[in-house]
Design a protein that fits this description.
The complex is a heterodimer of chains A (267) and B (325).
Chain A: H1 2-15, H2 19-45, H3 55-67, H4 69-72, H5 79-87, H6 90-94, H7 100-128, H8 142-173, H9 176-190, H10 202-210, H11 214-217, H12 219-225, H13 230-260
Helix pairs in contact in A: 1-7, 2-3, 2-7, 3-7, 3-12, 7-8, 8-9, 8-12, 8-13
Chain B: E1 2-15, H1 20-28, E2 31-45, E3 50-54, H2 61-68, E4 76-81, H3 90-93, E5 97-101, H4 113-123, H5 128-141, H6 157-169, E6 175-179, H7 187-204, E7 207-211, H8 215-221, E8 224-229, E9 232-238, H9 239-246, E10 249-256, E11 268-273, E12 277-283, H10 289-299, E13 302-309, H11 312-322
Parallel strand pairs in B: 3-7, 3-8, 5-6, 6-7
Antiparallel strand pairs in B: 1-2, 1-4, 8-9, 10-12, 10-13, 11-12
The chains are: A mainly alpha (267), B alpha/beta (325).
Amino acid sequence: MKPYLAIFNLRMINGLQYRIAALAGVATQFVWGFMYIMIYEAFYHGFTGTQTISLEQLATYIWLQQAFFFFVLLWLKDNEIFDSITSGSIAYELCRPCGIYGFWFAKLIAHRLSGTLLRCMPILVIGFFLPIPYRLSLPPNFLTFILFLVTLLLGLIVVISLSMIVYVSVFVTMSPIGSFLIFSVVGEFFSGLMMPVPLMPIWLQNIVYILPFRLSGDLPFRVYSGNISTNDAIIGILTQILWIIGLIALGKVLLTKMLKRVVVQGG
Amino acid sequence: MIKVEGLSKTFKVARRSSGFGEAVRSFFSPKFSEVHALRDVSFSIDEGEIVGYIGPNGAGKSTTIKVMSGILVPDKGECSIMGYVPWRDRVKYVKNIGVVFGQRSQLWADVPVMDSFELLRDIYKVQPANYKKSLDLLTETLNLGEILTTPTRQLSLGQRMRCEIAASLIHDPKILFLDEPTIGLDAMSKIAVRNFIKMINKEKKVTVILTTHDMNDIETLANRIIMIGKGQILYDGNLNNLREKFVTHKTVTVDYNENTSPLELDSASLLSWSKDRATYVVDIKKRGVSDIISELSAKLELTDVAVDSEPIEEIIIKLYKEHQV
C-alpha cells in the first residue's frame, strides 16, 4: 500500500501547485452554475405542473456539480499517463516493483482530489449565502450527509475505473483524442452533467439508470438534496460497488493483456 | 548472474512511401513489415562486471536492455537474471535492478528532485536509515547538493542526468542498466558520470551494463564489450583483444631538425612531409613501431616522436564493415 500512498501524496503536492488554474476554474464554475440555475429558473416559471425535482433541490444539485467538478467530469485527463504510453516513458514505470494499474489509479485519484480541494471551498461557502432560489441548501439530515459522502467517494472511484479503460485503450490507438472524446461526450450526457437526470424524459432516464455514468455526477448530489430516499441511496451504493468491482476487473485484465504485447515507443 | 539465451524479438512496423497517393493507398490497405530487433542473442555476465553494450543505431541495444529489465516480453528465448525471469517475475525482480534511460526522465518535472527521490524511496520501500545513507553518498559523489531542491524542469541536462542516475540507485540495486547515460553531456559531466559508475562498481560490486555511442565511455569503463548489429551479436570479449585483432596500423609523427628530402621507409608509407616534420603510417603486422623509430633516429636528428594508434571508433567501423552492418 505504501507505494500507492506515496504516488498519491506526490501527485497531490504536484496538483496543489497549480493555483492560478484553480482560481480560473472557480470563476468558470460560478459562471456555469449561475447560468444553469437561471435557465432552469426560467423554465420552472413557465411550467405550471410539479417537477420531480424542486428548483431549490436543483440549485443545490448544480452547485454541488460545480464544486465537485473535478470528481465528476470525464474529460479531465492526466496527460502524463498518455505521454508515458505514446512516448515510451512507461518504461520507467514498468521497472518499478508495483502494479501499473494501482499506480495509475492512485495518481488519478490524487489528481482529482487535489483539483477539488483547491476549487470546492469558495463555491460551497458562497453557495450557502446566495439568495433563494440560488442558494445551496443544507442536507435534510445528518444521515443524508453521510450517505452523500459515501456515494461521492464511491462515485469518484467509478469515474476513475471507467477512465482507466480509456487509458488502456491508448495502448492500441496511440492517441487519447478519439477515445476521450467519445468517452466524455457520451459519459457526460448520461451522467447528468448537461441536463439533470430527473428532468430527462422517462425513457431516457431508464437508459441512464442502466449505465454507470450517473453513479458519479448524479447519484451523490441527489442524495444530498434529498431527491433520492435513504433506501434508494443504499441501493445506489450497492450498485456503485458492483460497478467498481466489474470495471476494475475489466481494466486490470485489459491492462495485463496490453502490457504483454507492449511496444515501448522510441529508442 | 545474468544469463541470456537465444533471445529474439520482432516488431511490426507500418511502412509506406511519402506522398498523397501512397497515403490514400495505405489508408485502405496498410502495409506492415517485420523488423527483427533481436535474433538469437545469447551471452552471460558475471557479478561485478562492467559490460559495454555497443552497436549502431537500431541494432537492438535498447531492446535488449528493455527485455533484461522486464519491460518487453521477447518472442523467443530465455533470460535468467539472479534467478528471475524478468518479464514473468517483473514486480519481484525489478527491486534488484536500477535502470537509466538516457533519453527519458523518471523525475517529476514540476516538483523538486527531492520529492521524486522520496517517491522512489517509498515505492521501493527503502528503510529510512538506508535511504539517508544512499542519499548522502549519492549527493556527495554526484555533487547534487543544491540541485535537490530545484524543480527538475529547471535543471540543465547534465544536472538532470546526474539526478537520474542517483534516482536509479536509491534502492541499492545489484545490477544497473544504463541506456546511453552520457548522451548530450559535456566533457566534465561525462567524466563525473564515468567516475561515479567506476566507483559504485568497485565499492558496491554493482554489475553495470551500459550502452553508449561514446567510445571514450567504453574505453574508460568497460573491460568487456558486447557488440551487436542488426539484432545479432558480432563480438563479445575483451576490448584489448579486439584492438589486437583489428589494429593493423599505427601513425608515427616525428619532428626533426631540418632535412631537405623526404625519407622513404620500408613497410611504412609516408603520409605527409615537411622540412621539419613527417608522418608515417606503419603496418605493424610487418614491422614494429620501435624498429621504425630507431631507423628514423639513426637517419634524422629527432626532436619529438608521437605514436598514435587507431581510435576505437575506427576499429568498430571496421568490425561493422566486416559484418556488413
